[in-house]
Amino acid sequence: MKTPVIRTGAKRSGGTCFLIRSLMFAVLVGLLAVSCGPPRANLIVIGSKNFTEQLILGEIFAQQIENKTGLPVERRFYLAGTYICQQAILGGRIDIYPEYTGTALTAVLKENPLTGKQESYARVKSEYAKRFNLAVGTPLGFNDTFAIEIRGDDSRRLHLTTISQAAAYTPQWRAGFGYEFMERPDGYKGFAATYGLHFAEAPRIMDLGLLTRALTNHQVDLIAGNMTDGLIPALDLYVLKDDRNYFPPYEAVPIIRQETLAVHPEVGQALDALAGKISDDEMRQLNYAVDGQHRDVKEVVREFLHQKGL
Questions:
Q1: Is 52 inside a domain boundary?
Q2: Which pLDDT belongs to residue 40?
Q3: 202 SS3 class
Q4: N or C: which terminal CB in the chain sees fewer CB atoms within 10 Å?
Q5: How far apart are CA 13 and CA 65, in angstroms?
Q6: Which CATH number characterizes residue 218's domain?
Q7: What CATH number has the domain bearing residue 138?
Q8: 34 domain-assigned
Q9: Which DSSP string do the residues of 63-84 spell out, in sequence order?
């Protein structure tokens, strides 16, 4: 923003100069008030990772807070992956973002996976408060575990239903995974070791939004997607059973700055009203509405919240 300039002559009186300076200050303050918007203390900033489900969850949080509290909400979606969102919330650049308990436990806290949902949630809640001064909201109701997917015709042709069965064919297959899956402790390294997987070439690393298309276009033969992906049935993909129970629970939860809750406890109350409101199938339908039907995410979320009486 450029400050307006009022030119004054060299021979103006002191009173006139004071008046001019006062006018300039008033104009500057007015322009700053318009350009800056509401103060940060009264603005709730929602972040999300860079895939459709996170966009939907972020929008659900945003509309729920707007509807229930009247507070202004800024949306900062598509913040890459887990590590970027975690740094953003620790740095105070965002106040809330959606996370998954299994991801929080293994990728953020660097702890071993836990098989029980309640045990995993309790551990994440306790450690996030202790280490980061972050609150972990109540679970939203669905478990978005990793989905190891192949094409439906390959599953039928080769009679494959489990990851263990598929291991015999992976030396001839190409795999595609997201960057996080390749790096995180509950990701590729342990997964491949657990099932003894070997592929025809090094796994291709790509954006999560490109994985299903790469599979259907025969660019890869196996991917690690999300269990609630709405395109799985639409694209005739098949989810292989994790028959060795490698993946931990991934319950969706809001992560919230404690400072935000201290100033606006009504934000926590608004998000608590979402507890248990989204089933696996409902999340899959929401994802399909955006990915498969190409509907506007705000409209999809607005309809969902209305149906839920929220």
A1: yes
A2: 61
A3: coil
A4: N
A5: 54
A6: 3.40.190.120
A7: 3.40.190.10
A8: no
A9: HHHHHHH---EEEE----SHHH
Q: Is 80 left (phi over 0), alpha (psi -120 to 50) or beta?
A: left
240, 258, 284: which is the final residue of a domain? Answer: 240
Q: How many domains does the chain have?
A: 2
Q: Are residues 64 and 201 in the same domain?
A: no
Note whether residue 75 is domain-resident. Answer: yes
Do 136 and 262 fall into the same domain?
Answer: yes
67: region left, alpha or beta (phi > 0 left; psi from -120 to 50 alpha): alpha
Residue type, 290: V
Do 63 and 208 share a domain, yes or no? Answer: no
Per-residue pLDDT of the chain (310 residues; tens, 9 = 90+): 433 333 333 333 444 343 334 434 433 333 333 334 344 668 999 999 988 999 999 999 999 999 999 999 999 999 988 999 999 999 999 999 999 999 999 989 999 888 899 999 999 999 999 999 999 999 999 999 999 999 999 999 999 999 999 999 999 999 999 988 998 888 999 999 999 999 999 999 998 778 999 999 999 999 999 899 988 988 999 999 999 999 989 999 999 999 999 999 999 999 999 999 999 999 999 999 999 999 999 999 999 999 999 8
Q: Which residues contact 261 (CB under 8 A, 6 or more apart)?
A: 135, 267, 268
Q: Return the number of other C-beta atoms located less than 10 Å from residue 72's C-beta.
A: 13
The β-bridge relationship of strands 237-240 and 252-257 is unpaired
Of the candidates 148, 174, 145, 152, the residue with the CA atom closest to the CA atom of residue 162: 148
Nearest to 181 by CA among 37, 34, 51, 14: 51
Q: Which residues contact 156 (CB under 8 A, 6 or more apart)?
A: none
Q: Same domain for 254 and 125?
A: yes
Same domain flag for 137 and 155? no
Same domain for 167 and 232, yes or no, is: yes
Which tokens in the block code for residue 162?
């489990």
What is the domain extent for residue 201?
146-240
Determine the pLDDT at residue 266.
97
